[in-house]
Specification:
Largest interface: A-B, 77 and 64 residues
Order of helices and strands of chain B: HHHHH
Helix content of chain B: 25-40%
Number of domains of chain A: 3
Helix content of chain A: 10-25%
Number of strands of chain A: 15
Largest sheet of chain A: 9 strands, mixed
Oligomer: heterodimer
Number of helices of chain A: 18
Structural class of chain A: alpha+beta
Number of domains of chain B: 3
Number of helices of chain B: 5
Strand content of chain A: 5-15%
Structural class of chain B: mainly alpha
Largest sheet of chain B: none
Radius of gyration of chain B: 21 Å
Shape of chain A: globular
């Protein structure tokens, strides 16, 4: 967090539901109680506000440091109805918060934006917008008006002060969860939550069926790869085993016991693979939301212009080039079968199946456990980043690199801290800086050694808006996954790999794929292994040889990938051995009639389940750390 | 009298909630009054409504807002503030916060931190 809690309330409070840091300082004092500031206990802001995140504010247009105007905005209380009122207006809430200290009503009178945002969310306000569209609507005026009625929770009846209780619901609807989670989920993990992209949604499950909460409102968590908030609560949700093995399915619902269907699978698979590794084989947009893309961001470029610029995974819907196409072995292209299927018009909707053009495959990585041997492979969507930093000390695993705030990067590269208006071209460079488009996607990128050298020199010599304070205290570096670039003693660009530059792996735990359709195995291949052991254990199988993106553009502008087997921790030799043919366990004893089980197309014979892992060629010590340590 | 009726309606609501757990989408068990930050009904004041004053009269607003969806790392399991203005890895010998994670950019789990 480097933007102060005031900025956070204004820009991020749209989804963060208020209370805590949006209302109280670190001493537990309300920032503004209607008459005095919590810090000073006076009506005046601190004379010399310390930029400690509580009462400071940096003007995003000028870079000038000043006081946070909590006295003008009020505070953002925890908003119960954001979750418990169907039809809540996220747009009104977001726009009102985003207006900040400058908000007025229609007659020009000041309006406390943070305090009024919840009321606007109920629809009890006339709101005009400067920026009406997501992801960051911004209001121009907000005029509170309880008489005109609010949102329509049931789609027809307007909320009034007399019927609020009628519409409040204890069990939170998916639609309310998705008000806040839809956009970040899509950006981070590519998650969608529709009946045609997740079998559990199709079966009627809702968010709180797996993520319930008690009176303490600790909404049950999963256990994701990235996330540092209250890790002590991780794993509290109803997970796969909870419903499918432990009888914790919601009332009135049942979950099939997978024991029989997986009975033929050698035990090592369930020991080393999370359920998701096979059952979230791919992700794609929902057919029912063809005009809303759900493909994720794979790269955040914060160095080309000093403005955070996301790059999508596909060229089809706004991205510059295809980075995660539907051919798992060659992500720069799509599978011809899917391209053909995408062109067919669905007679029911009259629309082509463009969702097939958005299919991509999650990456794999080991996760959680006291040792590599105890970890399981989980599905993730890596996010690669590029940013400028201040290299304080160390290298490789121990490199201490602190990011340089983007406003200062903008000043160094373009001479101004302000961001261009939405839709406007980037601010022009200063100091003779220039970038070329080496990958032909229509956008220049910072990738060649000469470009990196020039940009690092510009960062190293830049000062804050006071004209004297250097923005780098030690050594300027470019962190561009998977490398850290620096200028050596002779002033030339060199690089090393470091965890600082690793991908941010967002968990992929939704979008469980439907069963395999034997008549249409490309469109609906089902979970891995549905077609038999050889689907994975064969030369060039996509399970082992599918490509994971590790660099968006190298020095030539080309993307770089690594095969799944490398991400899993195998050596090339081991991967070759596992895919030369289906590993054969020792011959099982002759089956008797009562041990013959229904086959699900799974691997091996029933005797294989007891086969030692070493005999299956999956000796645990072969797993290695994914991180490559170089100096 | 009003207080008595209020308690009675709350008791009925609680009974209804306990007796009808399957009615997850059931409405609030009794009518509610939206109030502003001063506790005055907004029908009178026409000011922004306050969740704390409107809902907190019956529900334990303080306990509810200790949920991590609200706190976002501001507090730990004990409910204690855990806010840092010091970057991970800079907090001294013997500390392990952030060590080996590569998260040298990290100030605090909570949504605080200097610019």
């Amino acid at each position: 967090m480097d933007k102060t809690s005031f900025f956070f309330a204004m820009q991020c409070g749209a989804c963060h539901p208020g209370g805590a840091a949006l209302a109280y300082d670190r001493e537990g004092q309300r920032y503004w109680d209607g008459s005095v500031f919590g810090h000073s206990r006076s009506a005046s802001p601190p004379a010399d506000p310390q930029l400690d995140g509580d009462y400071g504010f940096v003007n995003p247009a000028t870079g000038a440091k000043g006081a946070a105007a909590w006295n003008k905005t009020g505070v953002s209380e925890a908003d119960c109805l954001l979750c418990h009122l169907p039809g809540y207006s996220w747009k009104n809430r977001t726009g009102t918060l985003g207006a900040g200290a400058a908000l007025t009503d229609a007659s020009g009178q000041p309006v406390a934006a943070f305090a009024a945002a919840s009321t606007a969310g109920l629809g009890f306000a006339q709101v005009t917008f400067v920026t009406p569209a997501p992801p960051q609507p911004k209001a121009q005026t907000v005029t509170i008006d309880y008489a005109a009625g609010g949102v329509k929770p049931d789609g027809t009846t307007a909320l009034t002060l007399d019927n609020v209780g009628t519409f409040l619901e204890r069990k939170v609807r998916d639609e309310n969860c998705r008000l806040c989670h839809a956009t970040p989920d899509r950006k981070k993990s590519g998650r969608s939550w529709t009946a045609d992209t997740d079998v559990h949604k199709a079966a009627g499950l809702g968010c709180v069926d797996c993520h319930p909460a008690g009176p303490d409102h600790q909404i049950a968590k999963g256990d994701i790869v990235i996330g540092s908030v209250r890790d002590d609560l991780d794993g509290g949700m109803v997970d796969c085993a909870g419903c499918h093995l432990e009888g914790r399915a919601p009332a009135g619902m049942s979950a099939p016991d997978p024991t029989v269907a997986h009975g033929d699978l050698p035990a090592i698979h369930l020991e080393k693979l999370a359920c998701q590794a096979c059952h979230i084989r791919y992700l794609q947009d929902a057919a029912s939301s063809a005009d809303v893309t759900e493909i994720p961001e794979v790269f955040l470029d914060m160095v080309s212009t000093g403005v955070q610029t996301p790059v999508l995974s596909s060229a089809t819907f706004g991205g510059g080039k295809k980075l995660l196409g539907s051919d798992p072995l060659d992500p720069s292209r799509d599978l011809p079968e899917l391209v053909a299927a995408a062109a067919e018009v669905d007679p029911a909707t009259g629309k082509p199946h463009t969702e097939y053009l958005t299919r991509w495959y999650p990456s794999l990585r080991p996760w959680k456990g006291p040792s590599m041997a105890a970890q399981k492979l989980v599905t993730v969507k890596p996010l690669l980043t590029a940013w400028f930093g201040d290299w304080l000390s160390g290298d490789g695993l121990d490199a201490r690199i602190r990011p340089i705030p983007l406003r200062l990067v903008r000043k160094a590269l373009t001479g101004t801290v302000a961001t261009p208006a939405p839709g406007a071209p980037p601010n022009p460079y200063v100091g003779g800086l220039a970038l070329a488009d080496d990958d032909g996607d229509g956008k220049p990128e910072l990738n060649t050694r000469a470009e990196i050298k020039a940009f690092l020199q510009a960062i190293a010599s830049a000062t804050d808006v006071d004209g004297t304070t250097p923005i780098v205290t030690a050594k300027a570096v470019l962190v561009k996954a998977p490398h850290v670039w620096f200028l050596d003693a002779s002033g030339e660009a060199q690089s090393f790999e470091s965890p600082v530059a690793e991908s941010h792996d967002f968990a992929v735990n939704h979008n469980v794929v439907p069963k395999r359709d034997p008549l249409s195995p490309t469109l609906k291949p089902g979970p891995w292994g549905s077609a038999g052991c050889a689907e994975c254990h064969s030369p060039q199988s996509a399970f082992f040889f599918g490509k994971q993106l590790i660099e968006v553009y190298d020095e030539t502008g080309a993307p770089q990938y690594e095969p799944h087997w490398a991400a899993m921790g195998y050596t090339a030799e081991r991967a070759a051995a596992l895919t030369a043919s289906v590993p054969q366990p020792p011959a099982p004893p002759p089956p008797t009639t009562d041990t013959v089980k229904k086959s699900s197309g799974g691997c091996g014979s029933s005797g294989a389940a007891a086969a030692p892992a070493a005999l299956l060629g999956l000796a645990l010590p072969l797993l290695r750390r994914r991180r490559r340590v170089t100096g | 009298m009003e207080l008595t009726l209020h308690k009675a309606s709350r008791a009925l609501g609680l009974l209804a909630a306990l007796a009808l757990p399957g009615l997850g989408y059931a409405a609030h068990p009794f009518p509610i009054t939206l109030k502003d930050a001063a506790g005055t009904p907004v029908a009178t004041s026409a000011r922004p409504y306050s969740s704390e004053k409107s809902c907190g009269g019956c529900h334990d607003f303080g306990a509810i807002t200790q949920g991590y969806h609200f706190q976002q790392g501001r507090t730990n399991a004990a409910g204690d503030l855990q806010v840092s203005d010091t970057f991970a890895g800079d907090i001294g010998a013997g500390q392990t916060y952030g060590i080996g994670t590569g998260a040298w950019w990290k100030l605090s789990d909570g949504m605080y931190g200097k610019w």
